[in-house]
Amino acid sequence: MESRAAYGELVRRSRERALLASCSSLLGWDEQTYLPRGGSSFRGDQMALLAGLHHERATDPVVGELLAEVEGSDIVADPDSPEAANVREWRRGFDRVTRLPRSLVEELARTTSIAQQEWVEARKASDFGKFRPWLEAVFGLKRQEAACLSRGGDVYDALLDEYEPGARGADLKTLFEDLRADLVPLVAAIAGSDQGPKASSLVGDYPVDRQQVFGEMVAAAVGFDFEKGRLDTTAHPFCTGIGPGDTRITTRFDPRDFSGAFFGVLHEVGHGLYEQGLDPAHHGTPMGEAVSLGVHESQSRLWENAVGRSRSFWEHWLPVARRVFREPLHAVGLDDFHAAINRVEPTLIRVEADEVTYNLHILIRFELEQALIGGALAVEDVPEAWTAKYREYLGITPPDDARGCLQDIHWAAGLIGYFPTYTLGNLYAAQLYDKADADLGGLERSFTRGDFAGLLAWLREKIHRDGQRYRAADLVRRATGTGLDHRPLIRSLRCKYGRIYGI
Ligand code: ZN
């Protein structure tokens, strides 16, 4: 086959796989939102069929032949062209799926499915001992997976590559150690300050229907397109891009506290803006897909924290919030409100952690999973290692396994190498925000006017539109002019929290 025709066939096949994947995403969304409980077993059959069809197409040897046809041809001569990027990423994906024996893939699916159910039970009972054999099984299988993928290279990198293509564990280790060295004293200084917000200052009556309206109003104002997306309620907030014109976000509401749902919405809106900003002309090919989990998370954290927890954002929105939630907010001033939504306290649970302590939760998981996969730490010693690190980094001691090493589902689900993308997201977010701020000449001024269009247009141009044209680290380097760096995040934290806590 002529190489142009081979490329066309690869595009056709890529789009077909994307359609199958989008059907799975839609069924997955439905499972979390509206599926009646009685339908869950049948839904499992539907999902398994789609996963099987997808796997069959992804591993079809014809894909390998087509790739061989176009690799080295004129089509990919310019490495920055859409064609070259697509071929590079198709090759990466094809090698990953075909290096894994079918028996291992099936064993992993089976084991992680049971391990997640066992995790639920073990967490309920707060008993790591119950979960231990399953965690050992998962890490055993993931080690085998990594060995197949890495072909003698670093096993952790092979797993990390699934979520953050091109990233290396050794680089992250150095970067994260620098980050930790700056964060630990900052957390200690905040904990030792006698200034700062009180725990309960915003608690009150926030009717859920009004929270929904306010959340949607803000989401639309920052640029989320409700003609091409929707917001629903789930136990665990998430965002899923079904396809062009269909991006769905979810949140959960607490009628006594508006901040959980509100910042949850803003976080998922950040993910949603990225999905809505991908180039629809490239849909179904890598050029039309998000580049990495780290960059995805950078978009959510940028809108949630850098924008949504800024004083200037609330200069515009607090008067509106006071009209919507009169009883709890009418007497709260801007400075007190701003301090309250930025309260810092070392706590046990990652998903509830504030912006300053959050990354320490991630670093702990990153260090432990690296040690586990490399064999330096045995699964049975996890609770002890977990406790030691929480003491050292956050100055607190988990009273039990449920609030310690059993709190996250990731490892049970086989997601090893996933945690560091959260911190990468926070670091990228700070770098991107700084550069956008410099390029656009002061974002805060526009926020006080309720104007977010400039920032969104900047992100569209620098990040969203390129899909997977460049690897994540290169994309951010092109956008910001610098490599991955922990200092912009530290600078912004020191500046904001220095004022709030008088340190
Ligand atoms: Zn996120």
Explain this structure.
It is a single chain. The chain is mainly alpha-helical and 503 residues long. It has two domains: 3-125; 169-501, Neurolysin, domain 3 (Orthogonal Bundle). Helix content is 63%, strand content 3%. It is built from 21 helices and three strands. It has a three-stranded mixed beta sheet with strand order 1-3-2, sandwiched between helices. α11 (293-307) crosses α17. The chain is globular and about 70 Å long. The mean pLDDT is 96. It binds zinc ion.
How is the topology of this model organized?
Layout: H1 3-33, H2 40-58, H3 61-70, H4 82-99, H5 102-125, H6 128-150, H7 155-160, H8 169-191, H9 208-222, E1 229-233, E2 239-243, E3 246-251, H10 259-277, H11 293-307, H12 311-324, H13 326-329, H14 334-340, H15 358-374, H16 382-394, H17 420-440, H18 443-448, H19 453-462, H20 472-480, H21 487-501
Parallel strand pairs: 1-3
Antiparallel strand pairs: 2-3
Bound molecules: zinc ion (ZN).
Number of distinct beta strands: 3
Name the hetero compounds present: zinc ion
Share of residues in helices: 55-70%
Supply the CATH architecture of the largest domain.
Orthogonal Bundle
Number of helices: 21
User: Which descriptor suits the 3D outline?
Assistant: globular
Radius of gyration: 23 Å
Average pLDDT, to the nearest integer?
96
Instruction: Give the oligomer, counting copies of the same chain as homo and different chains as hetero.
Output: single chain
Give unreliable regions as ranges. none
Strand content: under 5%
CATH class of the largest domain: Mainly Alpha
> Separation of termini?
68 Å
